[in-house]
Amino acid sequence: MDEKVSCLIGLQTRGNFYKVELGLTTLLRNCLESETENLKSILSSYVDHFQSLDSEDAGWGCGWRNIQMLSSHLLAQRPEAREVLFGGSGFVPDIPSLQRWLEIAWEKGFDVPGAAQLDHVVYGSKKWIGTTECAALLRSFALRARVVDFGPKEESKSVVGTSVDKTVDKVRNDKMDNSEVKKSEAYQVLMDFVWNYFSDKNAIQFGQQHVMISEKTPLYFQHDGHSRSIVGVQAKHQQNGYLAYNLLVLDPTHSTPALERSLMKKIGWQKLIKKGRNTLKKPQYQLCYVDPGIASEEEMEKLKTIDSVFLES
């Protein structure tokens, strides 16, 4: 195993992507600050956009692209993650290299059921992956990747002792207090969770500002048929007293240069990035994010099992 890891560290290839010179989140923040409505937005501090390419992964690679986006944040913003991710290489690997890293995670015993489901092989294939594969890969580097499920009623599974539990409790309390939220409205449970996540359970104080930066990682955002990355959230107070939310989303199928132009000109960017309740039609969603810190050896053994928090919608 050690030989495989050493070999991969030496042979892995840096993932190619279009680098936004001024920084994607900086441009997005400028756009959000230029809005005149009574809106409050919270953004993840840094992320690079990795787009799917026709010549490489169009139609199947969105999951890998979201892992790359999440990894770009971890490498830029979390020194402890930078030291351990991808053998300390300091860069985001390409998809074939990530496929190798996932197979090594499986060999180490992470997500045994998931490995079996994909026949223990992804390298060189066009197999779709999701949040559990993202979590398994990142956990194999001792990172505390967490998974949250949203969907129709079933038995809830909770990860004890993680920061997600407090956020989940806040969402459940909000849901019970809001009689207008129907059980069928999966979007509301999801939106409440995302707001509480980025606002750190409302610890962020806006004051006179209406755009704030969060230390939280972007969210790997999975649903049937596609996955994207949530890099922030926006809220608007309505006359009925409730909050209307927009998720701020980066889609791997979008062109990065086109995204950059739209943000720089402040034209059409809302359609590309803002996703409100009308866009959330799926019955089930999954999120993956990374808590701070490095897991101990004892914790690593527990992390091999990918348990998720379940929120009924």
From TrEMBL:
Domain spans labelled UFSP1/2/DUB catalytic: 43-288
Lineage of the organism: Eukaryota, Viridiplantae, Streptophyta, Embryophyta, Tracheophyta
Keywords on record: Hydrolase
Name assigned to this protein: UFSP1/2/DUB catalytic domain-containing protein
Claim: Hydrolase is one of the keywords in the record: yes
InterPro entries from the UniProt entry: UFSP1/2_DUB_cat (IPR012462)
GO molecular function, one term: ubiquitin-like protein peptidase activity
